[in-house]
Design a protein that fits this description.
heterodimer, A: mainly alpha, 5 helices, elongated, B: alpha+beta, Beta-galactosidase, Chain A, domain 5, Glycosyltransferase, three-stranded antiparallel sheet, 26 strands, about 20% strand
Chain lengths: ~160, ~625
């Protein structure tokens, strides 16, 4: 493994992914804010949650980059399209499994069956995170495909 | 009354779990319920179609009289039947408990619990269970699963009926036109029969036991509601009505997101047989001001906080603009469709789902939201940067949009106009924003906000008041009356005792009221044909304005004129027929209950000699 490449392109692709997701929020395509959701696990302060969440998200992105790179090495397929394919699987896992179990492990997220107690917490993402807007699945998938493609294209 | 006849709208009580709700008639029939959320397809909709809608009826086999009420300080509904042979009651509820309790033991996703209890003698009861998922579009057969219950499956969704009756006593008929379970049983004084309908869709259903555990769930639910109501700090005038109203508002809340739907029903007509049939199972940010003000005044801070959070964070998809309505999860694409296979309530077609008002521009929404934020601000030490930017962007939007025509509070379909009420709320929005910006030391374009605010007031005073009529008018430069201008002193735009406001109240009383009830407007082309009833909240606005003006007797008069039409369970619709007192429109309606609470508080303050601020 080329550690320098792994660290650099893992960081770069995470930055691109985060920027893409944030851009989609700004365009009104989704309300999903993964860094904020991660940060809110540790603090109820929205401002603090955002910067803390970005740090956690960057570390996560780095960690996942090593899994992608391991897959490149095991298969010998160091191509952008293979990275994009892993990104697609990654996104589907997040949408189909990750966000579904999140209300159970997130200390500040309501679940779908909450009530009548009111929530002062984050609303649950729902199936495919559709509660955060109908554009959420497609933006999440595209962002992760780009993440994988960047790694596949540049990691050597 | 047979299942084939439509009860009056006023003959229903509401039960719910703050995610969905059901209407239960005083004839013992569940005739409206959507699963899993308010705006999901219905499973029971006999209120919109006696044949195809679906229902769950428990009713004496012999002639009876019945009455309905709530167990005090709860949302547990009690329907008592008197027959020649005895007396029996049915307790209807959604079983509810705290989140802590749900973590300790399995609790059904949604459960309608129905407990039939003999009080005197013995009564023969007929049970008819005919669920019709997906708005009754198709028939889904019932399947007897023995001890598990009677299942009705629609795709991956499951409705399961369980009962303490012996399985052999329940007949199931399935066919092209029918899927119904029936049973006839006799209940004696001191005995109970239990029925439970549970709904599940994306996990195996939790099957709640009946018998003693069901009684425990009833007690748990009663305890939950009483505990919740113990937060209510109101003991002023009309306290009983206020308490019922706040319990009803709680049933309209959607706990997972903090939203609050306008009403749990669709297409209950504003005129029997007419076409004014709309879907209200969505959330109007307009209601923010009233809901937050009401909840804060009564001591329900958590609910006010949850609703404000919903407003602030679900509007992301449309920022900086605010849409007229959103789904409970903030979805924006709520297309209006017609369900042409349902007859509608007493042939009032069409039955609509979705709401085309979603695409309208209603300027007042900005002011209502800012007023809501202002009302909750005493409990917020600091807004985060993103929220602060959003709040400031609302002010900028008002500055940009205030001189544009809009569809207004009544969501008219005749095209945009310069509605006076909308301009007033635009003024309110800037007024509150300037106050908020000063309180939180925000850098804000104060000059721009002040300038726009002054221009709006000038436009209202020079063009929104018609001297010949002696009243503020529906539109700028207009000559039509509109009861929505009654909110002007309520939102702090002017004093209720000001000459113009006094005159406006007098003219509205003279021209927009009949039998003590007030219409929102009359003889106005709102783009929809057909008559409608008086508007419930208008009476309460009038009562509140008069109370603020110190005219306590008149305030009580308008409050009590509408109270005369109250049903036995204390719930209010959107509209009331001025001639017959019949309830019209979606039911129960949060807006009307908010009006009731605020008017009662104003009368109470006035009674104490404290002029409402």
């Amino acid at each position: 493994m080329n550690l320098g490449h792994a660290l650099f392109w893992g960081f770069a692709s995470t930055i691109i992914l985060t920027t893409l997701m944030s851009g989609c929020r700004g365009l009104g395509l989704t309300r999903m804010d993964i860094p904020f959701m991660l940060g809110a696990m540790f603090t109820p302060n929205r401002d603090s949650a955002k910067w803390l969440g970005i740090l956690i998200h960057l570390v996560n992105g780095w960690a996942f980059a090593f899994i992608y790179i391991e897959a490149f090495q095991l298969t010998g397929l160091r191509f952008w399209w293979f990275g994009a394919a892993i990104g697609l699987v990654h996104a589907m896992f997040i949408l189909l499994v990750g966000v579904r179990i999140l209300p159970g492990v997130h200390p500040r997220m309501a679940d779908e069956l909450r009530g009548p107690d009111p929530t002062r917490q984050l609303e649950p993402p729902g199936y495919l995170a559709l509660h955060y807007g109908r554009g959420t699945p497609i933006t999440t998938i595209l962002a992760h495909i780009v993440y994988g493609a960047v790694l596949g294209l540049f990691y050597r | 009354m047979s299942v084939e006849e439509f009860p009056r709208i006023s003959e229903y009580g509401l039960i719910g779990d703050a995610r969905t709700a059901a209407l239960v008639s005083r004839y013992g029939s569940v005739e409206w319920c959507c699963f899993p959320h308010f705006d999901s397809p219905s499973a029971f909709a006999a209120i919109l179609d006696r044949e195809r809608g679906g229902f769950f009826s428990l009713c004496p086999a012999d002639e009876f009289s019945s009455e309905q009420r709530y167990i005090e300080n709860t949302n547990v509904l009690e329907t008592t039947f008197q027959t020649g042979s005895g007396r029996v009651r049915i307790l209807d509820l959604f079983s509810v408990t705290t989140e802590d309790q749900k973590r300790r033991a399995f609790w059904p996703d949604h459960e309608i619990l129905r407990i039939v209890e003999g009080l005197e003698g013995e009564v023969r009861i007929v049970m008819r269970y005919a669920p019709r998922p997906d708005y009754g579009k198709n028939i889904f057969p019932l399947e007897n699963r023995g001890n598990i219950g009677i299942a009705c499956s629609c795709d991956e969704k499951l409705l399961l009926l369980r009962t303490t009756l012996p399985a052999s006593s329940v007949d199931i008929r399935n066919g092209l036109e029918v899927a119904e379970a029936t049973a006839t049983f006799t209940i004696k004084a001191g005995t109970q029969v239990h029925f439970s309908v549970v709904y599940a869709e994306d996990a195996p259903a939790v099957i709640p036991p009946l018998g003693e555990p069901a009684v425990a769930r009833l007690e748990e639910s009663i305890g939950y509601w009483k505990q919740w109501m113990s937060q209510c700090k109101y003991d002023g005038a009309y306290a009983e009505h206020v308490r019922r109203s706040v319990l009803m508002l709680k049933l309209l809340s959607f706990a997972p997101s903090g939203a609050l739907v306008a009403a749990p029903t669709t297409s209950l007509p504003e005129h029997i047989g007419g076409i004014r049939n709309w879907d209200y199972r969505f959330c109007w940010p307009r209601d923010a001001s009233g809901i937050i003000r009401t909840m804060v005044a009564l001591g329900f801070h958590d609910e006010a906080d949850a609703f404000l959070s919903w407003i602030l964070y679900t509007t992301w998809l449309t920022r900086p603009n605010l849409q007229v309505l959103y789904s409970v999860y903030g979805h924006t694409n709520i297309r209006e469709k017609i369900i042409d296979w349902l007859t509608g309530y007493r042939s009032s077609r069409p039955v609509r789902i979705g709401n085309a008002a979603e695409k309208q521009f209603q300027l007042d929404v900005y002011g209502e939201v800012l007023d809501g934020i202002y009302s909750f601000s005493p409990y917020v030490a600091k807004f985060d940067r993103e929220t602060r930017d959003f709040i400031l962007s609302l002010g900028k939007a008002i500055c940009k949009l205030w001189d544009q025509p809009d569809e207004g509070i009544w969501e008219v379909r005749s095209g945009p106009a310069h509605h006076t009420h909308s301009k007033v709320l635009a003024w309110v929005g800037l007024d509150r924003l300037i106050w908020l910006a000063k309180k939180y030391s925000w850098k804000a374009p104060f000059e721009q906000f002040e300038s726009a605010k002054n221009k709006i007031r000038e436009a209202i005073e020079s063009r929104g008041f018609n001297p010949a009529l002696g009243a503020y008018t529906r539109t700028l430069d207009g000559a039509e009356l509109d009861a929505s201008v009654l909110v002007m002193p309520i939102v702090g735009y002017c004093d209720a005792s000001s000459p113009r406001m006094r005159s406006t109240c007098k003219v509205i009383c003279e021209n927009l009221s009949s039998n003590g009830l007030i219409w929102r407007y009359r003889h106005v082309d709102d783009g929809v044909t057909g008559p409608e009833g008086s508007f419930g909240i208008c009476n309460f606005w009038m009562a509140e304005v008069l109370a603020r003006a110190g005219k306590l007797d008149q305030a009580r008069h308008y409050f009590e004129q509408i109270l005369k039409r109250e049903n036995t369970v204390g719930l209010w619709p959107e509209e009331i027929d001025t001639a017959t007192g019949e309830y019209l429109g979606n039911y129960p309606q949060g807006f009307t209950h908010i009006g009731l609470i605020n008017a009662a508080i104003a009368i109470s303050k006035a009674s104490e000699g404290v002029k409402a601020a």
